[in-house]
Design brief:
It holds the Pfam family DUF930. InterPro entries: DUF930. This is DUF930 domain-containing protein. By secondary structure, the protein is an all-beta fold. The chain has one domain. The chain has no helices and four strands. The protein has a four-stranded antiparallel β-sheet with strand order 1-2-3-4, with no helix packed on it. The radius of gyration is 14 Å and the shape is elongated. The two termini are about 20 Å apart. About 5% of the residues are buried.
């Protein structure tokens, strides 16, 4: 897990998380913004491996025993 970064017109996160069904997955994304930062010019993402349940609390990821989506 890592904090998101803003460099120029690009907002990116190499250590984000995605919740799907009953699991959390590693997520990386990059969002290119227009120069005025009001619109998305490009977006790409990569869904990675599941985050082990034993690590959820360390990253403040919900463990409610059910689906959040």
């Amino acid at each position: 897990m890592a904090d998101p970064k803003m460099v120029g017109n690009a907002f990116s996160a190499d250590g984000a998380a995605l919740h799907s069904k009953r699991d959390w997955f590693k997520l990386q994304f990059k969002c290119e913004l227009t120069p005025d930062h009001k619109k998305v010019a490009a977006f790409e993402f990569l869904i990675g491996d599941p985050i082990p349940r034993k690590d959820w609390a360390d990253h403040s990821l919900s463990d409610e025993g059910g689906s959040l989506d």
